Amino acid sequence: MQHLVGEDEFTVVQRVPWESVLDAFPEIRANPFVDRLCEVFSSKKDNCVSFEDMLDLFSALAPSCPVECKAKWAFRIFDFNDSNALETEDLHELIDRLTNGKVIREDGKYLSETEKQHIIDIIMSEVDLDFTGSIVTVEFVHAVSKMPDFCSSFTLKL
């Protein structure tokens, strides 16, 4: 556990290792984006979180969090290369993580790379409103705000 002196000499900021968070909240460990949750919510990018970092995490994943706020956090989590845009590579990673790399078709077979690319092409055609080949935050927020299940899916249930 790290102890850092805060902005004034009377404040001590305690940072907890991410592994301790996962021990305390196994629901987070089971999340397919567990590594991204740490990367996005760790304010110091040191594999540790402060109390404020944990407040941000639990606020973003609370059922009562507004959809626009949830969407902005989700965007950051899904932006695997931290480019401030969701690109084809990010969407491939997103599909693989959501499905454990094993999307099963009705015939019992896994989706091929060609079929995954087809899904990505459809997503891009619907969400990439300025036709840049990537999805920026405002486009993502606009798209997920129209998805009725987004808020309930992007929630941590303790």
UniProtKB/TrEMBL annotation:
<keyword id="KW-0677">Repeat</keyword>
<dbReference type="GO" id="GO:0005509">
    <property type="term" value="F:calcium ion binding"/>
</dbReference>
<dbReference type="InterPro" id="IPR051433">
    <property type="entry name" value="CIBP"/>
</dbReference>
<dbReference type="GO" id="GO:0000287">
    <property type="term" value="F:magnesium ion binding"/>
</dbReference>
<keyword id="KW-0460">Magnesium</keyword>
<keyword id="KW-0106">Calcium</keyword>
<keyword id="KW-0479">Metal-binding</keyword>
<dbReference type="InterPro" id="IPR011992">
    <property type="entry name" value="EF-hand-dom_pair"/>
</dbReference>
<feature type="domain" description="EF-hand">
    <location>
        <begin position="69"/>
        <end position="144"/>
    </location>
</feature>
<protein>
    <recommendedName>
        <fullName>EF-hand domain-containing protein</fullName>
    </recommendedName>
</protein>
<dbReference type="InterPro" id="IPR018247">
    <property type="entry name" value="EF_Hand_1_Ca_BS"/>
</dbReference>
<dbReference type="InterPro" id="IPR002048">
    <property type="entry name" value="EF_hand_dom"/>
</dbReference>
<dbReference type="Pfam" id="PF13499">
    <property type="entry name" value="EF-hand_7"/>
</dbReference>
